[in-house]
Amino acid sequence: MKKKFHRKRDQRKALFKILLHNLVINERITTTDEKAKYLKILIEKLISKAKKGELSHLRYLLSKMTKKSAYKLFYEIAPKYKDRTGGYVRIIKLPLRRQKDNAKISLIEFI
User: Fold this and answer.
1) In whole angstroms, what is the distance from residue 103 CA to residue 58 CA?
2) Do residues 74 and 49 lie in contact, with contact meaning Cβ atoms separated by under 8 Å?
3) pLDDT at residue 67 is higher than 70
4) 30 CB-near residues (< 8 Å, 6+ apart)
5) Residue 53's pLDDT band (cuts 50, 70, 90)
6) Rounded Cα distance, 73 and 99, in Å
7) 19: domain CATH number?
8) pTM listed for this prediction
9) How many domains is the chain built from?
């Protein structure tokens, strides 16, 4: 079952599209633990598709991400992981907590 993150479907899709974009462009972001765990699942599936290097996989990436981040993932990031079978990103739990709701914060980055 998918996590809902207290959002409707379209809001949830937009949230993770933005998180995916920021992760690919900046190559590391800080977010809450739960969002980082879900984002890891999404990005690893996308990298596995991008590694194959076919046009249909690029079109799939374009449907899931912004154009700029899809091209960067397909042409720059995925070729680095040609020999790797999985584990493209890591989550580092930070000792910090968010001020407003005391949520746990994590750093997610490419290996």
Assistant:
1) 35
2) no
3) yes
4) 94, 105, 106, 107, 108
5) confident
6) 33
7) 3.90.1030.10
8) 0.88
9) 1
